[in-house]
Amino acid sequence: MGLAGCCLAWQRHFRGADFTWEDDDRPGSASRVAAGLVNPVTGKNFSVSWRLAEFLPEAEAFYARVGGLLGKTLWFPLPVWRLVGEKEWSKVAGKLEEARPWIAAVDETVPGWRAAVVLTGGGRVATREFCEGTREYFSGKKGLRQPHSAEAARGEDAAATVLCEGAAGLMTGRLGGHRCAKGEILTLRAGWRADRILIGGGGWLVPLGDGMFKAGSTYVWDRLDGDPTAAGRARVEEIARLLGGADFEVTGHEAGVRPIVRKSQPVIGPLEDGRIVFNGLGSKGSLYAPGVARRLAEWLANETDIEPGLDVRCLP
Ligand SMILES: Cc1cc2nc3c(=O)[nH]c(=O)nc-3n(C[C@H](O)[C@H](O)[C@H](O)COP(=O)(O)OP(=O)(O)OC[C@H]3O[C@@H](n4cnc5c(N)ncnc54)[C@H](O)[C@@H]3O)c2cc1C
Fold first, then answer.
1. What is the residue extent of each domain of the chain?
2. Could you report the per-residue pLDDT of 254-271, keeping only the tens digit for each?
3. From ligand 1's centre to the CA of 244, what distance in Å?
4. Ligand 1 centroid, distance to 97 Cα (angstroms)
5. How close is the Cα of 165 to the center of ligand 1, in Å?
6. CATH 3.40.50.300 is right for the domain spanning 181-258
């Protein structure tokens, strides 16, 4: 089960609601490879993530609660250093005011860069541990009907099927067009400093602890499979050299497909065939999955309507 299905399972569980699940563990699923990076201000445009102030605290509280139940730390807050070169500086400088609440400092003394914008609110979610722990937790619960797709009860007694299929679901064309993007990631061993996430030059470097790092990532739109490639590895090694240095050992190389409908704005709600969808987490599943899953769980219980910004019926 990926981030969407796992978060929905917990949100159902917290409400005392029943569910069953099934997952075919297909290769290329995104949550298996994701670095779990949460970056408050993203992209070439240096834009504050969509509804960050709402979704970030909810995600933090969610991972703390689930981590307590699983006996694991799932959320690792870390400063995010956005390294900005000379060419992109004027664009980033023009967005500093908008991003001000998330900026701790601007350091103009970093060798090789025009500046580093130090961001607060970022960190890493241990996505693999979260998904594996979730599966184990619910598999071992007696009396819980086992919930990819989660079977959930909507309202009093009508069973509903929720499709949390990630890119595989989008590639069926179920939601019309999509912009799913394959990405490759390396796991590295290196003696670099591990007290910050580095983002720059079109990639990122995330410390995992114990001298281990994740580096990524590529974006490819025309070969949507889970196969690592030599070209992908070469590109990510280039990012690692730029952000960390030349001295590292590659210990892992993985690929997955990001489920993208409209950038990283997820969608939930009913399909014409009566089933329900939770998809489109894009490149930001760690940030949005917990809060969106809660909203879906509330709607499944007939407590709220789905807001238009998330409603699959409002897709163009
Ligand atoms: C290389 C890469 C790096 C990333 N880095 C980050 C990051 O640093 N931070 C971040 O927040 N996000 C990151 N992401 C994005 C993040 O991984 C996704 O937003 C998130 O994992 C999507 O979760 P999901 O549950 O929707 O999909 P998935 O994780 O793909 O899960 C879908 C599940 O459904 C199952 N499934 C699909 N179809 C069927 C079917 N017909 N029957 C049964 N089971 C089925 C699959 O086996 C899978 O388990 C990254 C993604 C990639 C590819």
1. 3-79+120-176+265-314, 181-258
2. 999 999 998 878 999 999
3. 27
4. 33
5. 8
6. no
269-305 pLDDT per residue, tens: 999 999 999 999 999 999 999 999 999 999 999 999 9
Is the C-beta atom of 150 inside 6 A of ligand 1?
no
Q: What are 64-109's pLDDT values in tens digits?
A: 999 999 999 999 999 999 999 999 999 999 999 999 999 999 999 9
Strands 80-84 and 37-38, sheet pairing: unpaired
The structure tokens 């009907």 sit at: 145
Question: Does the C-beta of 34 come closer than 6 Å to ligand 1?
Answer: yes
pTM given for the model: 0.95
With beta carbons less than 8 A apart as the criterion, state whether 4 and 279 touch: yes
Handedness of CA 184, 251, 113, 104 (dihedral sign): positive
Instruction: Say yes or no: CB of residue 181 within 6 Å of ligand 1.
Output: no
The domain at 3-79+120-176+265-314 falls in which architecture?
3-Layer(bba) Sandwich (3.50)
Gap between the Cα atoms of 161 and 295, Å rounded = 16
Q: How far is the CA of 209 from the centre of ligand 1 (A)?
A: 23
Distance between CA atoms of 91 and 69, rounded to whole angstroms? 44
- What is the band of 193 on the pLDDT scale with cuts at 50, 70, 90? very high
Ligand 1 pocket member 35 (CB < 6 A): yes
Ligand 1, pocket-test mutation among 128, 258, 310, most atoms within 8 A of CB: 258
| CB 216 less than 6 A from any atom of ligand 1 | yes
